[in-house]
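Example pasted here:
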Amino acid sequence: MRIEAYTQVQQLYKSQKTSRSAATSATVSARDQLQISSIGKDIQTAKAALAATPDIREELTASVKASVQNGTYSVDNSTFAAKLLEKYSALV
C-alpha cells in the first residue's frame, strides 16, 4: 500500500473544499429575514393568554375540595356508570 498516493488524493480534495467555500462566501451577501404571518401572531397571542391563566380555576373546585375534606363528598354510582359508558361509546 502506497501512503504517498493517499496523501496526494487527500490534498486534492482538501484544496477543492476550501476553494469552493471561499467562492460561495464571497458571492453570498444576502441577509436572512424572518416574517411571522398573522396566524403565527394569533398563535403567539393565544399562547401568552394561556400562560397567564391558572391551571386550576379555584372558584369551581373550591366547593368540591371542601366537601372532600369534610368527608361529605359522595358519588352517585348510576350517574358515574352512565358517564363512563358515554365516554367509552364516544371512543369506540
Summary: The chain has a mean pLDDT of 81. The two ends are 68 Å apart (CA to CA). The helical segments are 3-27, 38-52, 58-70, 77-91.
